[in-house]
Amino acid sequence: MTGQLFAIFGNPVSHSKSPLMHNLAFKGLGFEGCYNRYRLEDGTKLKETFFALGLRGINITVPHKEHAYAACDELDPFARKVGAVNTIVEKKGILYGYNTDAPGFLKAISEFENVKKVLFLGAGGTAQSTSAILRDEGYEVTLLNRSAGRLERFAQEGFKTATFETFTPESYDLVINMTSAGLEDDALPAPKELLDAVIPSAKACVDVIYGKETPFLKLAKSLRKPTKDGSNMLLYQGIIAFEHFTDHRYTFDEIKAHMEKAFTL
Ligand code: NDP
């Protein structure tokens, strides 16, 4: 085998589209690479597993993005700022860490024009990196979360935050589900009366979950709002990771032309 090996580390990882996405792009672009999946149970073993498998690069999904951050020798400034890494590339024995979720998300929502105020439903790891990049780009982000604990860090960083009990609805351009509600259940990310108070005045509703229509997006559609699921975020974070894996040899659009086939196969 002369090519380079890549993988996605996570737990669970069997559902991941990343192997299909990256292998289609390797094949289409004629790059000698092969991308697999690896179910990593113990995140503290990430680094030794990476080297034991002889990998050149990995993506990292739930629940290991913080372990990935800790495993890196060098961090891209944005990954350092948000404390989460979802892409690692090895060069001469040194592990370089990046966060491509946030720029992928930013690109996915940039199709909506004249957006300033954004409401995030949820305050987990994905909300952390995406809220930071949105703020850097001039958006105003408010975070609404079921419980108070995860909001503390955001409040300290100067974001507007509220729990379901303390929330006073305002008008937002985009309402975005950043929770896992609806992923494996039929839950809405917030009580229906709160959603009914913010969706009608929004320009559109977005979900980071992909591959299914969540109860949140169903509700938004019933209120005649444009909707968008998490597929483009997944595709774009994958393209940006691929750019790092292949040392920026291909343009975004060249990679996209092959990688996006994973969503129609
Ligand atoms: P975390 O576990 O870090 O955070 C989960 C968040 O969801 C918390 O705010 C939690 O609230 C909230 N939550 C969970 N269940 C419910 C519920 N039933 N009702 C209300 N709130 C709920 O998750 P991540 O941030 O890592 O991931 C969030 C979502 O983003 C997942 O669905 C994941 O699949 C998706 N994702 C999509 C990507 C893409 O490329 N499309 C990339 C990365 C993630 P509380 O604090 O109260 O527990």
Overview of the molecule:
With about 260 residues, the chain is of the alpha/beta class. Helices cover about 35% and strands about 20% of the residues. Helix 6 links the parallel strand 7 and strand 8. NADPH dihydro-nicotinamide-adenine-dinucleotide phosphate binds next to helix 6 and helix 10.
How would you concisely characterize the structure shown here?
Helix content is 37%, strand content 21%.
Please specify the SSE layout and strand pairing:
Layout: E1 4-10, H1 18-29, E2 33-39, H2 46-52, E3 57-60, H3 65-71, E4 74-75, H4 77-82, E5 87-91, E6 94-98, H5 101-109, E7 117-121, H6 125-136, E8 140-145, H7 151-156, E9 160-163, E10 174-177, H8 192-198, E11 204-207, H9 215-222, E12 227-228, H10 231-245, H11 252-259
Helix pairs in contact: 1-10, 1-11, 5-6, 5-10, 10-11
Bound molecules: NADPH dihydro-nicotinamide-adenine-dinucleotide phosphate.
Radius of gyration: 19 Å
Average pLDDT reading: 96
Bulk shape: globular
Q: N-to-C terminal Cα separation, in Å?
A: 27 Å
Please identify which CATH superfamily of the largest domain we are dealing with: Leucine Dehydrogenase, chain A, domain 1
Give short descriptive properties of this protein.
alpha/beta, six-stranded parallel sheet, single chain, Rossmann fold, six-stranded mixed sheet, binds NADPH dihydro-nicotinamide-adenine-dinucleotide phosphate, 265 residues
